[in-house]
Each structure stands twice: as C-alpha cells, then as structure tokens.
Amino acid sequence: MAIVGTDRHAQQPEQEEQDDLLSELLKPLRLTGVFDSRWHVRAPWAIEGDAERSCAVLHYVVEGDCWITTEAEAPVELHAGDLVVFPTGTAHRLSDRPERQGLPLKAVLPERQPGTSGEIVIEGSGPESRLLCAGLHYDASAATGLYTSLPWALVLDGPQVDREPLLRDTLRLLAAPDRPVGPGDRLITLRAFEMALVLALRPLLRELAGNPTSLPLLRHPGISRAVVMMATRFADPWTIDALAREVGMSRSAFTASFRDLVGESPARYLAARRMQEAGRLLTETSLPQSAVPARVGYQSAVGFHLAFRKWFGVTPGEYRAGADRAA
Questions:
Q1: For the stretch 219-255, what's the b/e string if a residue is b when 16 or more beta carbons lie within 10 angstroms of its beta carbon?
Q2: H/E element holding 259?
C-alpha cells in the first residue's frame, strides 16, 4: 500500500505536465467550417477519399462494419460504435473489404462545401452499414508541428466511446437522420463537431502519452515543458538560450531535440503561437491594434507588423477588416 501511494505521488507532477501539454495541443483546434454526410451503404462498396488540407476527417460507424486502408499502413477494421479521426486528413479508403477498390469520393459527393451536408446511398446485396462522416476544416496557422506529428489515424472503439457519454451522445445526435434544424443550425453544427473532435482527441492523446513511440514528445520532460512554456507564456521575451536554460539543456541539444520531436524549430513554434494569438485578438476582441504587439511578445510595433505580414500575407489592419466583413 505504501509503495503504491509513493509511486502515485511521484508520478503526479509528470501527469500534470502531460495534462498541460495535451491541453495546449487541443486549445488551438477551432474549426472554421464543417461538411458532414450520412452514408447508407450495402456491400459490395468502396469509396476513395483524397488527402484533405487543413482538415481533420471523422468517421463514426452507426451500424454495421467497414475497413479503412491507406498506403503503407495495415488495414483497420471498424465496427458499430467505433470512431476514427484523421487529424491531418490523410488520404484513405473506406470499404466493406480491405482489398476492394472503389469510387473516388468526388464522384459520389462532387460538392463538399463547408457548412453543407450530403448523403451517400449505395445499394447492394450484402450487409448494410451506416456512417456519419465529416470534414472538419481548421485554421492552418493553429496547426503546430506538435499537432501535425500525430499518427495518421486515431481510433476509439465502441466501449471507449461509451466511456465518454458527452462524446457518445453528441455523435448520436449528429448522426440522427432527423437531426433538428432551425435558426443558427450551421453554427450549432460547427460547434457540435468541434466539441466532438476535442472530446475524441482527449482520451486518444492520453493513450498516446503512455506510448512514447507514438508521440515521443510526451515522454521528453525538457521539450514538453518548453512547449507548454511557449504556448502559455508567449508574451515573455524568450530567446533560444533562455528556453534551453529554463529546461536544463544546452542550446544545441535543445534545438536539435525540439526540431526532432515537434517537427519544427523552437523559433518557428513560438512565432506560430504568437501569430495565432495575435489573430485571435484582432478578430475576437476590440483591443486596439497598437496594443497587440506587446500582448504577444513583441517589443517593436514595426517588428510585429513585419512578422504578421510575413505569416498571414496581409497587415494586421487588413486581417481585422477582413474578419469584420466576414462577420
């Protein structure tokens, strides 16, 4: 008993650090648009989906079974109640058999504009399957190297989904053929899928935290701490030397390990976080534009202006004006 208690106490700071890191990974995931579709298919059937840029893809099996295949990966079988998420929209095929070749998705759903819905019906003589599928478009500037390093597909089986009642109920509502419609439906659907994505990624990322080969960053205390610091304290006047000292590493070891584990340099990761926050302040608050640079770690307004234009392709003023027009 005493040993178990001691181990739990010793692991608590590590678990808290992992929780902080997972929170920072999920925080930027704000969807900009969703296309969803309901599939009613009978074997034989197969549909080939292209790679989706700046788009996560979600498939929820309402009834029946299906297979997911992609290049250089083993096929994955899904059953009723299972959920699969493709964080970065990897090209894949859904089918009743893993070896079956199929129709291109664009042939059966030629128009997939965010904010709209569709339906696929394939009549066959074999077993029936029903699926809810969605393309979840997100702001590419918020997709850090940490997010894009996630595995090509993440699967929650039926029992795992059932252990997340809010996720389960949200998916069932979204998959219902008589889903309520009315004023504000487009925004409600967007936020419902956004919640489903975050609720799905949370247990999946916790599972990855226990498997260093899947996401090694979660087991590197120095780099994971640096990621959290840059994500939460982006307004601090960080330098690479200061970050390396803070986590007890040499500059060269810190820079090399960060790039290897996160997928980009510390400087670019920090710039991405600062630009993401700057964009949020400009579009979601009434903060004067002149106050934004200091809030995101820039001492010079000119330096911020140049960095912002290089990152977004427009000036801060144009960015805010564009958001106002869209609203």
A1: bbebbbbbbbbbbeebeeebebeebbebbebeeeebb
A2: helix 251-262
Reading the chain (327 residues) residue by residue, the pLDDT tens digits are 222 233 333 344 455 555 566 666 666 567 889 999 999 999 999 999 988 888 999 999 999 999 999 988 899 999 999 999 998 899 999 999 999 988 999 999 988 998 889 999 999 999 999 999 999 998 776 666 667 777 889 899 999 999 999 999 999 999 998 776 666 788 888 889 988 988 888 887 777 666 655 667 767 889 988 988 888 889 999 999 999 999 999 999 999 999 988 888 999 989 988 998 899 899 889 999 999 999 999 999 999 999 999 999 999 999 999 876 665
Helix axes 266-284, 221-232, angle to 10 degrees: 30
Contact 59, 84 (CB under 8 A): yes
Tell me the residue ranges of DSSP E strands in the chain.
31-42, 46-49, 55-63, 65-69, 76-79, 83-86, 92-95, 103-104, 117-122, 128-138, 154-156
Q: 78 in helix, strand or coil?
A: strand
Strands 65-69 and 92-95: antiparallel
Other beta carbons within 10 angstroms of residue 113's beta carbon come to 8
Scan for tokens 């986590």, then name that residue: 247
CA distance 214 to 197: 19
Q: What angle do CA 133, 184, 189 make, to 5 degrees?
A: 15
The type of residue at 124 is G
